[in-house]
Amino acid sequence: MHGPVLVARGIRQFLDLGSGLPTVGNVHEIAQQDAPDARVAYVDLDPVAVALSRRLLRGNDHVRAVRGDLRHPELVLADPDVHRLIDFTHP
Question: How far apart are CA 39 and CA 12, in angstroms?
């Protein structure tokens, strides 16, 4: 499913694992077009991708980039920024 479809169905939070270097049409850009309160946690292992994402995301309190490895989901889910943004009791 695409972002607009998910937002239309009430999804307001997204966890993007392996997000990579930011380009155009990122998850938060698409989701926040229709739902400005949509929350996105970007996770990547590459410190350069995370640093660039953090710089580009400054000023958007509903989005964070964190360094994490999808091979260690328990650490990703325990990250304070992920935990603050994503409520795993909701879709």
Answer: 6
pLDDT in tens, 13-44: 999 999 998 888 899 999 999 999 999 999 99
Please state, in angstroms and rounded to a whole number, the distance separating the CA atoms of residues 81 and 66: 7
| Per-residue pLDDT at 91 | 81
Give the C-alpha distances (Å, rounded to integers) separating 14 from 42, 77: 8, 13
- The residue behind tokens 């992920």 is 82
Which two tokens mark 3? 């972002």
Single-letter amino acid, residue 89: T
The pLDDT of 51-72, averaged and rounded, is 96
Amino acid (one-letter) located at 9: R
- Alpha helix ranges (H) inside the chain: 3-8, 27-34, 47-57, 73-78, 80-85
Instruction: Name the pTM for this structure.
Output: 0.91
